[in-house]
Structures are given as C-alpha cells and as structure tokens.
Amino acid sequence: MFICQWHIEVPFGKQGEATNILKEWASAMEGSGKFQGVRTHRVLVGHVGPSPSRVIAEWEFQSLSDWERAIEAVGEERFQEYSARIAPLIVPGSQHWEIWRPVD
Question: N or C: which end of the chain has fewer CB within 10 A?
C-alpha cells in the first residue's frame, strides 16, 4: 500500500475553488475506472501550522504500478478540462508529489 500526495500552493482566497476542482477531477477519474487500485481519496488543506494556501490531494493505492497507471490517465484528453481549470490556481514551482509507504 502507498499513500500518494499531490501538493500544491494556491493564491490567497482560492482554496475553495481549488479544492472543488480537485474533488470533481478525482470523481471523474475514479468514475472512469482509471484510478484502479485506489483504496481512499481525500483533499487536505493547511489549518494550523501549514499555510491555508497549501492543498494536498491524497490517494491510497494498492501498488505503485496502480499509481503510475493513474498518472498516465491524467494526461488523457477527457481529463484536460480539470488540468486547465486548476493550472491558473497553482503557485508556480509549488506542485510536487510525495509518496509514502505505511509501516505496520
């Protein structure tokens, strides 16, 4: 199992808009069957400590190959609408992935 987090920073006042787009995008991806192996999904925002401008889309995948298939699917034409909508809200240079492996 792997926890895969996409971290972005958004401009002040844009947190709600960004989280709505991320939720819609995740729903479309999961509904298409392209996020096979997903166990859970959630969107996190900074509250105490991290800036409220920090937004994290987090998925739990059964394997890294499941994550890789999902990332490849993000580039498909039918999902480009979401990419185009979120792009203007991302602070340049802030986006990155972090992948965690839970230890029992």
Answer: C
